[in-house]
Write a structure and sequence with these properties.
The chain has helices at residues 29-34, 36-42, 77-89, 108-113, 191-207, 235-241, 245-251, 264-267, 283-289, 317-330, 354-364, 430-433, 440-453, and strands spanning 10-13, 46-49, 53-54, 66-70, 93-99, 139-140, 150-151, 211-215, 256-259, 275-277, 335-337, 372-374, 462-468, 472-477, 482-488, 494-497, 502-512, 515-527. The chain has 528 residues and is α/β, with parallel strands linked by helices.
């Protein structure tokens, strides 16, 4: 196995707002094909596509009606096959979003499961045994002729698929038990559903995709504690993923499996995934640039000052300690990523200066992890707090159209209307930035070039922190080279002495011999 992902920079695309090729107001797969040269020029190695399956879009595509069909607004299966083919020509990998914890209420599996008579699909979903028997406030009763309530993962339109429960302390034959409807994750009645999931994955792997990002991978087996360090609390999740991932690895080489779990010690360290994310559920990650008011999906996660902030009051020590622990627990098994953003998070550029955004990317593209760039973050698109559509709530503001040009519709579409309104801040477009050497876009392009040039900057390179304050200084090294990175997100000038052979890249620094003045919101990268 070559583990191509350890050297890769990923780019997440929300397809319906990336580029509209036929001017109907919706981004589409052909639009992604037409923008592949842009991604290649930026230095992207792999793209993660948010769900493109047929869906009523009551949760932005995360409610799937048919796994084997493409959402008509996005195109056809032939369009997707062409996208795969065109990506292979320029060596860009494709990772699909896979939503297998639940489906849409409109999926044929669920429609059959909701019937009162026993059939093939009756056990595909979690149902209680009576309309008057709910469970943990997560079931909906009285909607269908079947007697019982169905379990939901998130919205009421997303019935949970049945992969069983982690612990059942009673016999399923005990009719006097109100929870006799529960099935243990090893129950043979659950095998058909598991085989369905394997077949879906094979269907797209056979088409030539390079892996999956599994939505809510920690939700499949119920009553687990996905972030517990006690193995008994995740036994069912370990069991289910070890019934799926090894099978696929035996059949397909060099395919990547990413978990949305937000606890890499378990997802990567114990359940067989190649990568997991640190996101808004991770307090130490929030301390980087999501700690301050209105910068996090959850207000309860906003704990105070960002490290990447002009006031210089943040603290990165918790994040450093968290990642050191991760390296120890997942080394040799896989990796983690601290993404720039996602479809579920407040846009990272919001309320930040261009120079501060550059310092964030100097960090994300040089420290020890696998970088994921959310579309538009490379040009500093900011959050639109005023829009809400298709179950997105205020997450919708991170899903507005990509801004290609400076025209009225920002080059996304020529239609009078678009799926979501475009932002209009002139500086936040590819057209405005592409020929400006010091733009966010070209800064990121240069940082990606450095990452590809020096192997010590990839996810297997060693890392050592020299300081853990302002400025932040750390070194990356392997048998070939050592690189030192110094980053000052604060508004105060910081002076440091660095011995170096060559300056690889700097922004907003004054350099006299080995004395380096890191001015407000600046960074320098040197070859030691």
């Amino acid at each position: 196995m070559n583990n191509w992902w350890k050297n890769s920079v990923f780019y997440q695309i929300y397809p319906i707002t990336f580029f509209d090729s036929n001017n109907d107001g919706y981004g589409d797969l052909v639009g992604i094909i037409q923008k592949l040269p842009y991604l290649k020029n930026l230095g992207i190695d792999a793209i993660w596509l948010n769900p493109i399956y047929k869906s009523p879009f009551m949760d932005g595509g995360y409610d799937i009606e048919d796994y084997y069909a493409i959402n008509k607004k996005l195109g056809t299966m032939q369009d997707f096959e062409l996208l795969i083919s065109e990506c292979k020509k320029i060596n860009i990998k494709i990772v699909m979003d896979l939503v297998v914890g639940h489906t849409s209420i409109k999926h044929k599996w669920f429609k059959n499961s909701a019937k009162p008579t026993k059939n093939k699909y009756s056990d595909y979903y979690i149902w209680t045994n009576s309309d008057f028997n709910g469970y943990n406030g997560k079931t909906i009763q009285g909607m269908f002729k079947r007697d019982g309530g169905f379990y939901v993962n998130y919205y009421g339109s997303q019935p949970a698929l049945n992969f069983g429960f982690n612990n059942i302390k009673y016999s399923s034959k005990d009719i006097n038990c109100d929870e006799s409807w529960k099935m243990h994750y090893t129950d043979e009645r659950l095998i058909p559903l598991r085989n369905e999931i394997l077949d879906i994955m094979r269907f797209y792997l056979n088409k030539g995709i390079d892996g999956f990002r599994v939505d809510m991978a920690n939700s499949l087996v119920k009553d687990c504690k996905p972030s517990s360090d006690n193995d008994e609390d995740i036994e069912g999740l370990k069991w289910i993923w070890n019934k799926i991932l090894p099978v696929l690895r035996n059949e397909y080489e060099n395919k990547m499996y990413i978990a949305e779990w937000v606890y890499p010690k378990n997802s990567v360290g114990k359940c067989g995934f190649d990568l997991d994310f640190l996101t808004h559920d991770t307090p130490s990650f929030n301390s980087l640039y999501r700690n301050e008011k209105n910068l996090n999906l959850m207000r309860s996660f906003e704990k105070g000052d960002n490290f990447f902030s002009g006031n210089g009051k943040g603290d990165i020590k918790e994040f450093i300690n968290k990642t050191k622990d991760l390296y120890k627990n997942i080394e040799g098994k896989g990796y983690f990523s601290s993404p720039s953003g996602s479809h579920d998070e407040i846009r990272m550029a919001t309320k930040k200066s261009n120079n501060l955004i550059k310092t964030i990317f100097a960090f994300l593209l040089t420290y020890k992890h696998i970088p994921f760039i959310y579309y538009g973050d490379e040009i500093g698109i900011t959050h639109n707090y005023k829009v809400s559509k298709d179950g997105g709530s205020f997450r919708t503001g991170a899903r507005t159209p990509m801004q290609w040009t400076n025209d009225k519709k920002r080059g996304f579409t020529n239609n009078k209307t678009s799926y979501l309104p475009v932002n209009y801040i002139k500086e936040q477009s590819v057209e405005y930035q592409i020929n400006k050497e010091d733009s966010i876009l070209n800064t990121i392009k240069k940082l990606i070039e450095l990452r590809k040039t020096y192997s010590c900057l990839n996810a297997d390179g060693e890392q050592n922190y020299i300081t853990d304050n302002y400025p932040l200084i750390y070194e990356r090294y392997d048998d070939s080279n050592k690189i030192i990175i110094a980053i000052n997100p604060s508004d105060l000038t910081k002076s440091v002495e660095l011995k170096y052979k060559k300056i690889l890249f700097e922004n907003n620094c004054e350099i006299v011999n080995n004395c380096i003045k890191l001015k407000a919101q600046s960074f320098i990268i040197v070859l030691n």
